[in-house]
Amino acid sequence: MSKLIAATLAALILSSGAIAADKPKMNAPDAVMQQVRALQAQVQELRDIEEIRELKHAYFRGIDSADLDLLRGLMHPAVTVHFIGGDYEWKLAGRDQYLEAIGNNFNSEVIAQHNGHHPEIKILSPTQAEGTWYLHDNFYNLREKLYTTGTAFYHDRYLKVDGKWLLRSTEYKRHYEIVEKLDKLPNITVDYLARHGRKVARHCHGDGLCRDDKDTAAAVTPVQ
């Protein structure tokens, strides 16, 4: 149990006496059961929020390390994606498309850092939730010597299936984006994706899957 949940639980227990005192006409066992049910609901909501936080944290780790197996376990099979940046727009339907786009673009010729901050998570029902995350990212395209940085607000929806929260939809439109051409590459001393990312013939930055006129199908070596 997290410290937040434990603290909330303690506070609710301490306040239960005051709640009972406000309702002297209610049968004591009934009042206790109402308090217990309310307490259970609040603790469950806190647990759900914490599980969704962990899901999204793992998502960012999976993105930057191109860990497709990890990402597969976080996504609903029918997940939908819509990302809009300065020169790209990803519209993807289904987990397989999204994983393929990640494998194509987080390849052996890039360095990626995505951090999600300030989560605002709302539990809509026992099986549905939504969240907003403040993204900041850095992205190096080593082949084309391009450096991209910027922010966006992720708007996610989550679905609980068989007791596990999954990403059901995700979208953002860039809040700001800066793309710079590099005269030379930085002095890279460690590069995880160089060893673990796909070897690709072309990048699929524009639409994620090389479906536009600028890009063509790319992948020749799967992620290990």
UniProtKB/TrEMBL annotation:
Against Pfam families, the record matches this protein to: SnoaL_4 (PF13577)
Would the keyword Signal be found if you checked this record's keyword annotation?
A: yes
- Look up the domain of life of the source: Bacteria
Q: Which residues form a coiled coil?
A: none
For this UniProt record, the keywords arranged alphabetically read as follows: Signal
The UniProt record lists the keyword DNA damage: no
Residues annotated as domain SnoaL-like: 44-169
Signal sequence, start to end: 1-20
Question: Which parts of the chain span the membrane according to its record?
Answer: none
In terms of Gene3D superfamilies, this protein maps to: 3.10.450.50
**What protein is this chain from?**
Nuclear transport factor 2 family protein
